[in-house]
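User: quick one, fold this
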Amino acid sequence: MSLRLINIGFGNVVSANRVISIVSPESAPVKRIIAVARENNKLVDATYGRRTRAVIITDSDHVVLSAVQPETVGQRVLSHEEVTEDN
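Assistant:
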């Protein structure tokens, strides 16, 4: 298993192998997930002060906030997988 890093904006990367889901921050359950992660010191804010557009949930219960759209992050995961399969 190789280390695959996905760009989540502003030069920040997340290990693709650890990502469970990429969701929009609009719903109440996701807002609760963010609040709980903040309380447990498991929140990583990678928005650089911009509006949160994607919430990335990892298998280690860390929650990463990104200013990039969830669809964009998802496409980067998919395109990265296609590149590694071709090699």
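User: anything notable?
Assistant: Helices lie at 28-39, 70-86.
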